[in-house]
C-alpha cells in the first residue's frame, strides 16, 4: 500500500482551488434560462422523444415541452440529442511525458499538470460530462479545479489511491479496513481495488476472499462504492464479497456473470479501446513500468476474448453492464470509440450502449437522481450528435454540442450560431 503523493506541479492547481470562488467564469450572476429545440432526443433511459423543447434554468432541466411554439435559444433539430455520457473508468492524469513515453501517474512537472488539464478538456469535448478516474492522487486537484470552475472538464469522481494486492498474505483485514478509511479521509469518492494482476501478466488473483470481504465491507460502512479490477476467479470472489462493480471481467464464466446479475453487481468490461490504444501507441509504452514485449503479445491474444466477455454479458439476463473505457495516455478524447467496439465487434444493441453510459452509468455511480437522463430536476448535461447512433454507431464520433450543468462548452452545429425565434436555421 503506497503513501498518497501529489506532485508539486499539481499543488499549484490545489492552491488555485483554495483561492478561487466557487463559481465558473462562464456562469452569469443572474438566473439564466435556455431553451433548446430538438427533433430527436434519446432520454438516457431507453426512450426516444420527438419534437420537444428542453427548458433549462441555471444548471438544471426544469421542463420538457412537446409543443413547437415559443422562443428558442439553441436549435438542435436534425441532430440527435442525449444526456452527456458517463465513463466509469478512466485515468484522467495519465499522459505521455516530454520524451514521448508513457508517464502514467508519476508526472511531476508543470507540463504534466497542463497535459492533465488537456485530457480533461478533450474528454469533455468528446461528449463525456462525467468520468470516474480510478486511482491517482493527482486526480484530486484536477477534480476540485473543475468543480470550482477554474478549469473546464468533465465532473470527476476519483478513488485517490488504489488498494493493490500482491498475491501474498500482506494486508490483514484490519489493515485493509484502515486503508479504506484513509482514502475516505483523503477525499476519495470511491475505492479502487486490484484483485488481479494485469491481464498482460496473466490476470492471476492477488487478494484473498477474506481481504476482499474486509475491503468491500469497510467501504460500505464508510458510504463508499467499490470498483474491483478483476479477471478469472477474482470476478466471483469480488461478487461474493459484495463489491459494487467489477472492472474488466475478462475470462469470467457464464456462471460468474449470472451470479453478478443475481447480486446486482455492475460489470464494466472493455470491448476494445484500451487494448487498441496500447497497440496503437506500442512504442510509447514499451519499456515503461509494466509494459513488456511479452505483455503486448498477450494483449493481442486477449482482444477477441474481451469481445467475447461483452457478448456474453449482453446476453446475461439482468446483468447491469455499464460503460467504461480504461482510458489512459493516448485514449483521452477518443473514449467514444468504445461504443463502436461494443456495437460493431460485440453485437451490443446501440440503444443499450447509450443507456449504459447514461442512466445505468449514473445509477452505478449513485447519481441517478442527478445525471444520466434528460428529465426535469436533473443536471443539464446535454450533448448532440451529427447523426443517429441507433442507425450508425460511428455518429458518436461527431459530437457537435456539449453542455454541462447548464453551461455550453461546444456548439459547432450550424457554424455555432444560436437559432432565435423568427430566424430560419
From TrEMBL:
- The protein's superkingdom reads Bacteria
GO MF term list: hydrolase activity, acting on carbon-nitrogen (but not peptide) bonds
Q: Which UniProt keywords apply?
A: Hydrolase
Q: Which CDD domains match?
A: Met_dep_hydrolase_A
The Amidohydrolase-related domain covers which part of the protein? 80-406
Q: Which InterPro entries match?
A: Amidohydro-rel, Metal-dep_hydrolase_composite, Metal_Hydrolase, Metallo-dep_Hydrolase, OTAase-like
Q: Name one Pfam family in it.
A: Amidohydro_1
Signal peptide (from-to):
none
- Give the stretches traversing the membrane: none
Could you identify this protein by its name?
Amidohydrolase
